[in-house]
Structure to design on (228 residues):
């Protein structure tokens, strides 16, 4: 058998094998599903008295805290739009998947369907702090040198800026806490804005491991939780 014949025979034997290998489909995981995993892309943050799981992506920063409230499963949700375009947000698309002991889906309950719960805070207004606490009067000083007067003025300005920053931070904290007690509703979330509020689902008293699933603008955020 010549060298050319040997090469032809080798090609004939290996070609079907290569074709078969190329035809075997590969398992492709959805690249639009983002799961909160320990030591991966998920962190914890305490906010307004609740501990949130946080997933941060280039498009969205999503935070979820889960609790049981009455006959419902409650999810406190915060969604920040990190894009340059408005994004559609629809809580009706959210769900809770029970993984153990018996798989099932806990559906979203609209605010009008809730019973025996305290009403959500509507149109919250942050309490105003005393005006005296937000401003510092320039201290009066005896007539002295120009340098001394300038130093006193600079010190007063720094104190004013510091107190004003504290006042605004306190107002922002109170406004955010009040907003988190509202029911999250469908909206078009503008760029660099945050939507937050509470979302209620059905409850399974026997549920142990659940997965909070939030589809948002083509992405699916999953937050596993172990219920006590």
């Amino acid at each position: 058998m010549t060298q050319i014949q040997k090469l032809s025979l080798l090609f004939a034997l290996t070609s079907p094998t290569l074709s078969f290998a190329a035809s075997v489909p590969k398992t492709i995981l959805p690249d639009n599903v983002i799961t909160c995993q320990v030591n991966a892309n998920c962190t914890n943050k305490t906010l307004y008295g609740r501990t949130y799981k946080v997933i941060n992506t280039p498009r969205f920063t999503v935070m979820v805290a889960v609790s049981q409230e009455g006959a419902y499963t409650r999810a406190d949700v915060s969604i920040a739009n990190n894009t340059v375009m408005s994004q559609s947000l629809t809580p009706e698309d959210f769900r809770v998947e029970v993984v153990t002991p018996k798989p099932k889906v806990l559906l979203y309950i609209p605010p009008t369907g809730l019973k025996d719960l305290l009403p959500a805070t509507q149109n919250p207004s942050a309490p105003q702090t005393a005006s005296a606490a937000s401003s510092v009067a320039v201290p009066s000083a005896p007539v002295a040198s120009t340098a001394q007067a300038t130093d006193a003025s600079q010190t007063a300005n720094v104190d004013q800026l510091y107190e004003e920053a504290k006042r605004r931070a306190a107002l922002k904290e109170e406004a955010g806490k009040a907003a988190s007690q509202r029911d999250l509703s469908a909206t078009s979330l503008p760029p660099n804005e945050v939507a937050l509020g509470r979302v209620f689902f059905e409850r399974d008293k026997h549920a142990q491991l659940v997965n909070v699933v939030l589809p948002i603008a083509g992405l699916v955020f999953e937050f596993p939780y172990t219920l006590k």
Observations:
- The two ends are 75 Å apart (CA to CA).
